[in-house]
Amino acid sequence: MRNRGIELGVGVFMLVGMLSLAMLAISVSGLTLAKQEGSYKIYARFENAGGLTARSKVTMSGVAIGKVTNISIDRQKLMALVEMEINADVDYLTSDSSASILTAGLLGEKYVGITTGAADDEILKEGDFIEDTQSSLVLEELIGKFLFNQASE
Amino acid sequence: MQSVTANLALLGRSVLDRVAAIGRAGMVLMQAVIARPDPLTSFPLLVRQLYSVGVLSMVIIIVSGLFIGMVLALQGYTILVDYGTEQAVGQMVALSLVRELAPVVTALLFAGRAGSALTAEIGLMKTTEQLSSMEMIGVDPLRRIIAPRFWAGLICLPILTMIFSAVGIWGGMLVGVDWLGIYEGSFWANMQNSVDFFDDVLNGLIKSLVFGVVVTWVAVFQGYDSVPTSEGISQATTKTVVYSSLAVLGLDFILTALMFGDL
Amino acid sequence: MDFFDDIIIDIKQLTFSRGDRYIFKNMDIRIPRGKVTGIMGPSGTGKTTLLRVIGGQLKPDSGSVLLDGDDIPHLGRKELFNVREKMGMLFQSGALFTDMSVFENVAFPLRVHTKLPEDMIRDIVLMKLQAVGLRGASELMPSELSGGMGRRVALARAISLDPALVMYDEPFTGQDPIAMGVLVNLIKMLNQALGHSSIIVSHDIKETLSIADYIYIIADAGVIAHGTPAQLEQNDSAQVQQFMKGLPDGPVPFHFPANNYETDLMEGR
């Protein structure tokens, strides 16, 4: 009957391990099973993508709809080229959407916020560009401007 | 002049000894992995080893995980509160545990708890001629003794690592939410936003799998290769803990650079 | 020499070395079938090594070890596995598997080498345990046994497959007088009752002489004397006499080789 105890112990061990994995998956990393049907890539050029990194969120109205996968320099226009992966079920981004780099809180992480426009007929597809962009808010520049305005008043 | 050549010869011999030891270790690993197990007899053996390697290590893992998670939350809070971002404690605790601390600390504790026990047990079997007598009866001790222990270590370490992470995060929540008063919703939301299942959780598990191979390999090999005396066993046990800890820390750097280096 | 009409093991020109040192050099030994053969000699002369060579655990540099015509050093893994079925070995420390009960220890060789049904294994194990007088201990773990009992269990395990050859490695070392007497009788009795051949490696002269039919004394990498116990008592070689009588000084010197004693003492001044 010693064997029975051992088997029970190993069983409990395995169960606890699985529960831990489930907790790590669901409540820690927020993994949900009903998604990942695929994604498509869109691009946007920014004057300044400072603070944005790969894996940053892409949101619309505060809801995550994808993530940044790559950031590089567009050699012709000398601007930051941001590649984003948008979940496939988000199929309503119009071609005149605008993208801006936002900050969560004053010092929080940077993310991309997308706002759709009015052109209902043209929907963004794989490889399309968002033309209307707004760059990162750089705190130093902001403070500089503020001081400049104060001084000129 | 003569002493120079003598020293050179000595150096050469010790290098050769090490290389030979690595060769023997490789052969033990090969035979333990390749050894075609007979499912009828080897499954009970494996279960028994899972018990002594995994279940018996569970208490130490749970206790350490809890305390490390609690300490992380406390330390993180005191720093982050200065910037008004104390709700990021959850994110910090989870990321540092899942990516780094859980695999490494679990592997180190595992080397001390289960690895040394494996070495001592196998060394003792060698000293008391159990391995020889098994061979005389016609059973390969690599297959019957080493292989189940190796597989058990390989299976147990990732499971223990997950338990460590989960308990640690729970401990972090205990301190952060219940004690320091961080709003529970933002604690979890921040965590879920920043932790990715595949990039963070699975990479941590891959790390622990690699550590499992290394620690168990070192442990069973040191036992199998020990000098069959009581002194030899104690030396082998020490070597197991030292070598496997160093290997874990070194490999951790390499794996981290490979997995998270470009982020 | 009627002993050697029927031999079970024929060792010819065996050479075995460790580093630069010869353990055996061109040694010939023949083991008669159905008898108890003692192999004696001072410590460190390779008696245990000889058993391991016979068991195929160590490979000699050259020479042959024939067991019923099979040359053990040249067998493949599989054949060696089958040959070992014919051998039982009692290790110096007993070497019981500490994680199995006495019953499982004795059943182990049966489970490995045979596909007998469980109730038959049970019968055989209980018979073997009865033969060594420990049937009542079958459910104990090895750690619960005394040294002498452990060795008897190991003996039951060694004979569980009814081997043709049983090898005993220092069976009497470290036993109290009673356990020693029990073992001596047991070895003799089992040898007669089961008809196997026995090899006893030992340096316990009295006990070995009392049960062995034929004895080899090995030293200096070879056999220095052999014969029946009575013949060896008559042997007039100084080395043999020193060993047989346990004299402290003789061809094997009491002093480790050293410089002149007086000069060594004077040097300190």
What does this protein look like?
The complex is a heterotrimer of chains A (153), B (263) and C (269). With 153 residues, chain A is α/β, with parallel strands linked by helices. Chain A has two domains: 1-34; 39-137. Chain A is 27% helix and 33% strand. Chain A is built from two helices and eight strands; from the N terminus they run H-E-E-E-E-E-E-E-E-H. An eight-stranded mixed sheet of chain A has the order 7-1-4-3-2-6-5-8, with no helix packed on it. In chain A, strand 3 and strand 4 form a beta hairpin. The model of chain A has no long low-confidence stretch (mean pLDDT 81). Chain B has 263 residues and is mainly α. Chain B has one domain. In chain B, helix 1 packs across helix 8. Chain B starts with a helix and ends with a helix. In chain C, helix 3 crosses helix 4 (118-131). The longest helix of chain C has 18 residues, at 177-194. Chain C is globular. The interface between A and B is medium-sized, with 30 and 35 residues.
Question: What are the SSEs and their pairings?
Answer:
The complex is a heterotrimer of chains A (153), B (263) and C (269).
Chain A: H1 2-28, E1 39-46, E2 57-60, E3 63-74, E4 79-87, E5 98-103, E6 110-115, E7 129-130, E8 132-134, H2 139-152
Parallel strand pairs in A: 1-7, 2-6, 5-8
Antiparallel strand pairs in A: 1-4, 2-3, 3-4, 5-6
Chain B: H1 2-34, H2 39-54, H3 58-80, H4 89-127, H5 130-137, H6 141-179, H7 184-194, H8 197-224, H9 230-260
Chain C: E1 7-18, E2 21-32, E3 36-40, H1 47-54, E4 62-67, E5 70-71, H2 77-84, E6 87-90, H3 102-113, H4 118-131, H5 147-158, E7 165-169, H6 177-194, E8 197-202, H7 205-211, E9 214-219, E10 222-227, H8 229-234, H9 238-245, H10 261-267
Parallel strand pairs in C: 3-8, 3-9, 6-7, 7-8
Antiparallel strand pairs in C: 1-2, 1-4, 4-5, 9-10
